[in-house]
Each structure stands twice: as structure tokens, then as C-alpha cells.
Design a protein that fits this description.
9-stranded antiparallel beta sheet, 4 helices
Length: 157
């Protein structure tokens, strides 16, 4: 199967799945490797309610803008809603990492972290699971998000 045909047939399938909002089809695609995850997880901080993930998009060229290649995502596990955290600045020391975003502040070490929301000032405690594999449901949501992001960008061009 040619790469162009495969890409087009996958795109047609994705469009139909999006219309049906069938998450099970996405899970099936990920499990059967038809839909591959074109990203690498750099950080994965997790709690019962949501997780915060930094990803590096591996399908983009090395000369792509950093804001396009690296993404921080906050994923609500109950609603499956993903918010992109727009990176503003960072501070790094031997043991503590800090990230400042448009939606809040993240401070973490090798074991735990805390996210403070700008809107509500709520503090969310997180576990740094950097060594663990990302759950397949989270991978699926990220792939779906990246795919919908690509469609929005291509529609704008």
C-alpha cells in the first residue's frame, strides 16, 4: 500500500470517526497500529482528575518552530477535554523544575508536582510518572487532539 493511499484512507476514516465521536474506534486504531502516535512523551504528571503531559512531535522537521514541536497538554480524565498550556517561561535547578503557562504554574521534581491554576488559584497535586508508560486512553486522546489540530491548521491554509 502506498504511503499516500494509506494516509488518505486513514484521513477519510478519521473524518468519519470524528463525526461519530467514536472513541472505541480510536482505541482500536491505536491498538492495531493503524493510527500511530507521532510524539514522544517528555513529562507525564498524573492525578485522578487530570494529567499534564509535555510531548515532542516526532513527525515535524527539526527546523519547525519550537512552539509547534513541543506541546504541554492538560487532559481532563473525566471529560476527555484537552487544553493546550501555552508555554511562557521556565526555571530549572538540580532538583526542581518550574514552568509558567498562560493558564497556570507548574512546579515538579522527580516524584511529584503541583499545578496552580491562574483562573481559580486552585492547587492540583500530581505524581511525576516519568518512568512509566502513558495509559493507552491518554495516548488516544493526544493522537485525536493532534489530528484535529492538524485539520484546523490545514483548513486555515
Amino acid at each position: 500500500m502506498s504511503p499516500v493511499f494509506h494516509q488518505r484512507s486513514c484521513q477519510l476514516f478519521f473524518n468519519n470517526v470524528k463525526k461519530a465521536r467514536d472513541i472505541h474506534a480510536y482505541l482500536w486504531l491505536v491498538q492495531t497500529n493503524i493510527m500511530t502516535a507521532n510524539f514522544e512523551c517528555l513529562y507525564f504528571l498524573d492525578s485522578d482528575m487530570f494529567c499534564i503531559v509535555e510531548i515532542k512531535r516526532t513527525e515535524l522537521p527539526i527546523y519547525a518552530l519550537k512552539k509547534d514541536r513541543f506541546k504541554w497538554l492538560m487532559i481532563n480524565k473525566k471529560t476527555a477535554v484537552i487544553k493546550e498550556l501555552r508555554f511562557q517561561s521556565m526555571d530549572s535547578s538540580h532538583a526542581i523544575e518550574e514552568r509558567f503557562f498562560d493558564l497556570g504554574y507548574l512546579k515538579f521534581d522527580s516524584e511529584k508536582g503541583i499545578f496552580i491554576s491562574k483562573e481559580t488559584q486552585a492547587q492540583h497535586h500530581l505524581e511525576n510518572t516519568a518512568g512509566n508508560e502513558i495509559p493507552s486512553e491518554i495516548v488516544t486522546l493526544i493522537v485525536k487532539h493532534l489530528n484535529s489540530y492538524e485539520n484546523v491548521v490545514s483548513d486555515m491554509q
